[in-house]
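not sure who needs this but someone in the group chat was asking about Non-specific lipid-transfer protein from Mikania micrantha so here u go. i didnt clean anything up, its just raw.
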Amino acid sequence: MARMATMVLCAVVTCMVVVAPHAEASMSCGLVARNLAQCAPYLTGEGNAPTAGCCNGVRALNEAANTTPDRQTACNCLQSAYSSDSTGINPSNAANLASECGVDVPYQISPNTDCSKVH
């Protein structure tokens, strides 16, 4: 379980190099990773529901992503996590994460989301 959480965080953090230089945003993949770290068990299917700490991180991340560039950067960070085969993210759990936490995210968390269209 700890190994899987570490792999998820490593995949998200690696996108910092890819996304950060191209975006004019205060959001970073490091911030996304920190806020979603406690969500790793739920995202990988090891937990039945997100924990309170996970949901607090989802809320904080949603509040921090208050501009279009920030939301696009967060989306790209999540896409980078999806693109790593070693993460084991459960697509259904990822898609349901925000609603499970009672947070309204203005785009679907999915490997098929076009982050350039997130506003």
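also Residues 32 and 59 are 11 Å apart (CA to CA). if thats useful
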